[in-house]
Amino acid sequence: MALALTCLGKLTLRWIGPQCLNTETVAELSPHVPGVYALMAFSPHVSNYTVYYVGESEDIRRRLHEHTRSPKFILWTLHARLRTYFAYAEVPTPILRSAAEAALIRVLAPVGNDEVPWALDIEVNPPPTGFFGENED
What is the Cβ-side half-sphere exposure of residue 29, based on CA atoms within 13 angstroms? Predict the structure, then answer.
């Protein structure tokens, strides 16, 4: 009997962030790191981060740099009015990256994502969204 080398039941993501979403912070990231990311805004009224967009990329630094100058109305409006942040997790395997993105969109229902992409059905742990990056229990 052959044993599976991986289990697609749950993918544990090691999140880095939240970090301020600006060109200086994004430029400090290592290039060509593949993974998933979440864009979030800090709401002082509830002392919490609200995820408003989830994505995936073969190069997170390049993709986040694109988001710092996004023409998409909802992103531009949020960046102009609220302090915006990002968190990311490295996911080198393309199929797992797509699955993680789809799972995060289903779990978090961010307003900036128009649809859930088709992908494998897996569970993932969402990014830290508590006050100053502390996980909510």
Answer: 27
Between CA 57 and CA 84, with CA 92 as vertex, the angle to 5 degrees is: 40
pLDDT digits (tens, 9 = 90+) for 54-106: 999 999 999 999 988 876 666 667 667 778 899 999 999 999 999 999 999 99
CA-to-CA distance for 100 and 120, rounded, in angstroms?
A: 9
Are 6 and 99 in contact by the 8 Å Cβ rule? The answer is no
SS (H, E, C) 32-83: CCCEEEEEEEEECCCCEEEEEEEEEECCHHHHHHHHHCCCCHHHHHHHHHCC
Residue position matching structure tokens 């961010």 = 110
Whole-prediction pTM value?
Answer: 0.80
Q: Which 3 state secondary structure label does DSSP give 17?
A: strand
pLDDT above 70: residue 2: no
Pairing of strands 10-11, 35-43: unpaired
Strand 15-20 with 35-43, pairing? unpaired
